[in-house]
Amino acid sequence: MSSVGRARRAGDLPSEVIFTLVGFRHGFLAALPLGMGAATFGALFGFLADQRGLSALESLLMSGLVFAGASQLLALELWADPPSIILLSLGAAFVNLRFMMMAAALRPWLAPLPPATAYGSLLLLVDMNFALSLGEIRRGKRDAAYFVGAGFLLWLIWIASTGFGFAFGHLLEDPEAWGLDFLVAACFLAMLVPLFERHRSIAPWAMAAGASLLAWHFLPGASYLLVGALAGATTGALLDGRR
Amino acid sequence: MDVDSMALLAILGMALATYAVRASGFFLVQRLPRSRFLDGFLHHLPGAMFIALVTPPVLSGGPPTWAGALAVVGTAALKIPLLFSLLAGAGTVALLRYLL
């Protein structure tokens, strides 16, 4: 698994992006602590899927093929017998729209790769390997296989924890008493810290927080995430442009 | 361990729709003209996204999640391993839920 590509355009792209087994292993190991948050979420999904009447194989297939927690929980909300294919597909696309923006932000690593490698890597795009990889990109690291290694570990954990939650979820009476429901938010709070820039982040982040709170109160579903992200990033881009 | 054929089609539809979203962001950004605005937007996007993701649930969770968030951010700022930040956060939330 080693292929080398040169950046096609100047700018913020690293001059040479590599894709090696060493990078894959780095990413795989770096994602281990985040696996705890993913495992909690995956077990929760497996538990709820059991409650909603999905079979074990259906639950595992959904985790393996869709690999996106929020949309899988939405699917459980909308699940019926028979399920509506169109409703579930559109719902998944909308809840997962943030992946579109993440894939765009990963351009420094993906653009220099051969297209098959880049589009193949995107099969494993989730929030956590995106956040880890973004940190690596900002630190000037060049091995894009890190992204795939982290994604692959999270994918394995996601499937295993779905099965675990399906089989044993009913045994854990009260996960909230252990603070386990907080782990997913905790992962993202921790990853915000290295992203903070004293002179550039305050206004966009305040705008993102305010807009997400407004949308949380007045708009349906998970739209607060997209509204907040768009408001914050637009604010940041406009303020940067005036400097 | 059985799979209903309609359930399988629905799962495949969700998988295709989700991959289409994953792939289209990269597809589009390669074809849009580069601009200072787009560069700035993409630079600020991850932070704004994570803030929007955590702010409503953390604020609406009351004092336990407020304190848990402070514990996570405070420990993460000390550059200790991520695992300990996560444990500090969940532990703080659990402790305050028990006490309050």
From TrEMBL, chain A:
Give membrane topology per the record: Multi-pass membrane protein
Membrane-crossing ranges are 28-48, 60-79, 86-110, 116-134, 146-171, 177-195
Q: Which Pfam families match?
A: AzlC
Q: What is its main location?
A: membrane
Q: Which UniProt keywords apply?
A: Cell membrane, Membrane, Transmembrane, Transmembrane helix, Transport
Q: Where is the signal peptide?
A: none
Q: Any coiled-coil ranges, and where?
A: none
Where does it live in the cell? Cell membrane
Family note? Belongs to the AzlC family.
Its recorded name reads AzlC family ABC transporter permease
What is the protein's species of origin? Aquibaculum arenosum
UniProtKB/TrEMBL annotation, chain B:
Q: Which UniProt keywords apply?
A: Membrane, Transmembrane, Transmembrane helix
Top-rank taxon of the source lineage equals Bacteria
TM ranges:
6-29, 41-60, 80-99
Q: Name one Pfam family in it.
A: AzlD
InterPro entries tied to this protein: Brnchd-chn_aa_trnsp_AzlD
The protein in question is named: AzlD domain-containing protein
